[in-house]
Amino acid sequence: MANNLMDYLPDYYNDVYEMQTIMHAQGDVLDKAEGEQFRLLLNQFVTQTDAKGISVFEDQVGIKPAPSDDLETRQNKVLMRLLPPRPITIWYLRDLFATLKIPATITVIKRDAIVEAKSAEINRSQIENIKYLLNIYLPANMIYEIRVALNRAEISNDFKVGLGTWLKATTTVQANVSQFIN
């Protein structure tokens, strides 16, 4: 029990059973109320919410979560919609990827933004988040590429050789034309 009300009980109640029972009962109620208050406080921040809290944010922003979305994916979708406007720089996009825990690097060459990631580290929802961010934040005269490096694969070159025979037979039969003459 985090709230031990017995510590605040005056000395003359030390041997009174009823008062000790009341303090223990009230301490449990106070613990539950404090837990709910703490959960309510955490649900005020998108990155700290639970499933009930994130649903409130999704309703405010107008997002309908997919059944396969986990809590972190739902939080990231809400964060992307609520981001404050800032000057769009390469450093800002890198910070944004770090904040959203997207394991990718971004570089800009002239008017081409190149996002590179490894297939073992990135999942489909993170790629969708990258597409959304780049569609929203990049200027209209820029294009982007998302490059996902595949895992190392081993290729074996087995060459199968077989030996067989092939036979072709042709026959010619002369027709009996005497039957057809009238």
Arithmetic mean pLDDT: 83
- Straight-line distance between termini: 121 Å
Strand content: 5-15%
Largest sheet: 3 strands, mixed
What's the count of strands?
Answer: 3
Uncertain spans, ≥5 residues at pLDDT below 50?
none
Strand arrangement, major sheet = 1-2-3
How large, in whole angstroms, is the Cα Rg? 36 Å
What are the secondary-structure elements, in order, as H or E?
A: HHHHEEHE
Structural class: alpha+beta
What is the approximate shape?
elongated
The number of helical elements comes to 5
Can you describe this structure?
- With 182 residues, the chain is an alpha+beta fold.
- Helices cover 40% and strands 11% of the residues.
- It is built from five helices and three strands.
- The protein has helices at 17-42, 51-61, 71-82, 90-99, 124-137, and strands spanning 104-109, 112-118, 143-149.
- A three-stranded mixed sheet has the order 1-2-3.
- Strand 1 and strand 2 form a beta hairpin.
- Helix 2 runs parallel beside helix 3 (71-82) and helix 3 runs parallel beside helix 5 (124-137).
- It is elongated, with a radius of gyration of 36 Å.
